[in-house]
Amino acid sequence: MQDFLIVGGGVIGMMTALQLADAGHSVALVERGQCGREASWAGGGIVSPLYPWRYSKAISALSSWSEGRYPELAGRLFEETGIDPEYRQKGLLYLRVDDADRALRWARDVAKPLATIGAEELYAREPNAAPGFDDALWMPTLGSIRNPRLVKALRARLERMTQVEIHERCEVAGLVRRGSVIEGVETSAGAIRAGQTIICGGAWSRGLLADIGVELAVRPVKGQMILFKAPAGLVERVVLKDGRYVIPRGDGRVLAGSTLEEVGFDKQTTSAALESLHASALSIIPQLARCPVEQQWAGLRPGSPDGVPTIGAVPGFDGLHVNAGHYRNGLVLAPAATRLLVDQLIGCEPIVDPAPYRLI
């Protein structure tokens, strides 16, 4: 029997497993499909909330802690696995921001570098940005990570750790319960038991807890994205306009996203989303019109009230914990959200006040 059992092999589940294994504990990781192939793979990899000044203090506390951890994590994973998560820190340009004054006040309050730049500096930084903008907001410290490579590297690292068991294509049917004590999960391959069970199932977390009468306010919210095959250097940094963005990769490819759709667990892509995302991308970088769309995909974000995740013990049960509901910021919050739960599990001082994230 393992010390910990984690349900869900996305970035939250795998980072939790890594931290617990680093601390010397044995871990079983159970994933219904392939590790890292749901929302963690489908996102864009921006290591910040899109408009951070519009979020609550609960989210800001986690995102601020997380942001500085990605360079170290990416370097460690590259060294240990040979897989480069491609962390890039080239800043973010905000075009046409209606609440720029609020943004600048927020930046002063949290000591975050953010400034208004004029057209000359804007187009010096991003020469292929759409013409006609007199100014922009510039955040030089923002980074991005190539999330499909991040999750691949995390899985590869866990696979090499003798104290970690990975169970993929293993459907969880329910929790193993003895009165108010949770002892593991029932799966398509039989029961898997552990001293502590952690639900990190993203948009699917609600159903598993509902089976024991626990209401978790998490729902699936579909997001569609497209990928352009573009020449290297066409786009140098993340550019955001009207809630849509383009994200460059090291090989020149450019992601454009994303939609927000309340359609349940439907992951189908649509021509309407393709047309909308294509138009948004061209309104940011017109020269993308000459680049073919190489791929379109959809993922299901774990939506939650105000985007605040639920992190901590499940009241009324012993040995059961949850880390879910990160909405659009799973990658953004992952280092801090997982550290916060692991701190509580192993008796360390929490990195931030855990109260705003508790399941009540």
Your description of this structure?
The strands form two sheets. Strands 1, 2, 6, 7, 8, 9, 15 and 16 form an eight-stranded mixed sheet that branches. Strands 4-5-3-11-12-13-10-14 form an eight-stranded mixed sheet. The chain is of the alpha/beta class and 360 residues long. It is built from ten helices and 16 strands. It is globular, with a radius of gyration of 20 Å. Its EC number is 1.4.3.19. This is Glycine oxidase ThiO.
Summary tags:
360 residues, alpha/beta, 10 helices, 26% strand, glycine oxidase activity, FAD-dep_OxRdtase, FAD/NAD-bd_sf
Uncertain stretches: none
Beta content = 25-35%
Principal-axes geometry comes out as: globular
Describe the sheet with the most strands. Answer: 8 strands, mixed
User: Ends: how far apart?
Assistant: 29 Å
Helix content: 25-40%
The class by helix and strand makeup works out as: alpha/beta
- The arrangement of helices and strands along the chain is EHEHHHEHEHEHEEEEHEEEEHEEEH
DSSP summary: helix tally: 10
Secondary structure: number of strands: 16
Any idea what the radius of gyration is? Answer: 20 Å
- What is the average per-residue confidence, as pLDDT, rounded to a whole number? 96
